Amino acid sequence: MTNWTERGLTRSAAFELSEDRTSNSSPNATMGEIVAARMGRRGFLKGALAVSAISALAPSQVLMSRSAQAASLTGAKFDEIEHGVDETHHVAPGHKAEILIRWGDKVTADAPDFDPMQQTAAAQARQFGYNNDFIGFVPLPLGSNSSDHGLLCVNHEYTSEEVMFPGIGKQGGDFANLTREQADIEQLAHGCSVLEVKKVDGQWQVVPDSQYARRITTGNTYMDITGPAAGHDLMKTPTDPAGTQVVGTVNNCAGGITPWGTYLTAEENFHGYFWGTLDAGHPNAQNFARYGVPGNWYGWGRFYDRFDINAVPNEANRFGWVVEIDPTDPTSLPKKRTALGRFKHEGAETILNPKDGRAIVYMGDDQRFDYVYRFVSDKTYDPNDRAANMDLLESGTLSAARYNEDGTVTWLPLVHGQNGLTAENGFADQAEVVIKARLAADKLGATKMDRPEDVEANPETGQVFVMLTNNTKRKDGQANVANPRTPNTFGHIVEMIAPEGDHSADTFAWDILVQCGNPADPEIKAVWNDKISENGWFAAPDNCVVSPSGVLWVSTDQGGSWSKSGTADGLYALGTQGDERGLGKMFFRVPVGAELCGPRFTPDGKTLFLAVQHPATDGVADYAPFGRNSTFEDPATRWPDFQEGMPPRPSVVVITRDDGEVIGS
Ligand code: FEO
Ligand code: CA
Ligand code: CA
Ligand code: CA
Question: pLDDT tens digits, residue range 74-87?
């Protein structure tokens, strides 16, 4: 790990050096000028930042204020852990981290016990899936604030065959060693799990034989296609000539829980599951090229025509959506909500607009140089009519974000017939606008971002946080005000502010909250609070959550390049206001090769659910004590069981405080 000690610097010298960094290369106006000139000052920030400080100082000066005495972080009072990497997880002292459920554990009552040497599709269809990512918590009874009983909604993003199946190693090419049964197991290990969880005698457990328990998969779950793309010619296939029903959801990354108690699951890298050859004569050539279809990451096309773009040219149009699931009804059909657009959806967090009660969904399209989106429902939420709320995501306005040099954000509506989204330009109707959402946003001039991941609002303050993981491909000359580093190796977080808390407004303000990476290395041009410790900074922000006490918690995904920071991924609390703005603290660290996903608090803030994804895989050859790639037989870690013969298993971890009090209080 490169830290200032190893570079021969004292800590204070390192801080001095870090002071020289460019905090914001943009010529954008101060927040105060935006407030005064464009929005009207009163009430604009709803307490997000002190208005007097804002009108006097540029944001970077607010961030860097040396007079601040932010020794600890309000709402995140714990002793932070250290950066590093080893074969297990670590949590801040005074907390318990327990395994709630692992890949292969029973979900439905009829599931067999997990046997890694005798895996079957029939078993996997009933067991907890692979690579848990998003976690949602829906309190039971529905509509309550219960914090000891609820439904846990968990995404299973992808599979890691090299540590999942004996004897085949990492596949690729023509997937010659992958059997049809393994391809089936993979499809059934993707998707979602709905679990009933309960705290019994202080101990969280998955309720066995729950009436709610459900697996939703790529391979065997029917779902409806709803919204503007339903029934469109581009959605029709030989097995679904109406274009209204599809089997499965795939690459379920992050998501959201709506105020009406449904579970949104976001289809991210759907392109990777399609194989074949894209040439100029393919009926979807231009649009597929924009989405990277086919990705040829998985071998399913060897066994299933629908994953072969030459055999079934439209199947890929039926993926890349946000899917809405009613977790309280295990017989309900999930609904692909096409009004929210088709892209590599990272997540989909919903709030009710404080101004008018419409549903607002913030979304990121996780690819280098792609966009941040917002959906505003046409109709308003009715607290007394859940059935009506179930269709709120059917119609509304999808927009993409343009970050302007004057510190404002313009939301550009993806509406057929407006601003060039016309038949002459390849958008015959609103269905084509949403199916080709990336091309539509290109046409509107949205801002090319550094991989937008989670986007999460704090409705109390009007702040909206955009995680931008990194972009090592952004070259000199390709910087823009909201993505100023070339290359952007460590990622950053952009803050947007809804004027007077109105999240449906056409214009927001924006600022950079932090620029990630080691602040002790001036070449990285990191921007943090100057009180940050040597363990409080991070790289590659991915998932995030605003805790009940208003603290932003950020989990990281450095992928195979964690050695650039020298620490495994983890969870960090991050201050966003006043003297604490930009102050990070490390709370949890994953085992080698893993990524941290899904941070989710119960309403009382006393329980935190985390998803440890793909242990023993990413970058493990750089882990000196191991120094090679993992296989099923020879993994870098056997977390969490540490039993000979048992492979590493992605798992949900439940965190509580030893004294049972609110985490961070
Ligand atoms: Fe699935 Fe963008 O992380
Ligand atoms: Ca993610
Ligand atoms: Ca990620
Ligand atoms: Ca990820």
Answer: 989 999 999 999 99
Q: Are the beta carbons of 156 and 189 closer than 8 angstroms?
A: yes
Identify whether the C-beta of residue 397 lies closer than 8 Å to the C-beta of residue 438. no
Distance 594 CA to ligand 4 centre (A): 10
| Gap between the Cα atoms of 192 and 256, Å rounded | 13
For β-strands 507-515 and 492-497, DSSP reports them as antiparallel
Rounded distance, CA 131 to CA 648, Å?
11
Rounded Cα–Cα distance for residues 529 and 216 (Å): 43
Q: Atom of ligand 1 at shortest distance to CA of 451?
A: 2
The whole-number pLDDT of residue 68 equals 35
What's the burial of 208, exposed, middle or buried (CB within 10 Å: 0-12/13-18/19+)?
A: exposed
Centre of ligand 2 from the C-alpha of residue 569, in Å: 12
pLDDT tens per residue across span 129-156: 999 999 999 999 999 999 999 999 999 9
pTM assigned to the model: 0.90
Nearest-atom index, ligand 1, CA of 366? 2
Closest ligand to the CA of 157: 1
User: pLDDT digit string (tens) for 272-290?
Assistant: 999 999 999 999 999 999 9
Pocket residues: Cβ below 6 A from ligand 1:
157, 253, 268, 346, 366, 453, 542
Closest ligand relative to 269 C-alpha = 1
Q: Which atom of ligand 1 is nearest to the CA of 344?
A: 2
Nearest ligand, measured from the Cα of 344: 1
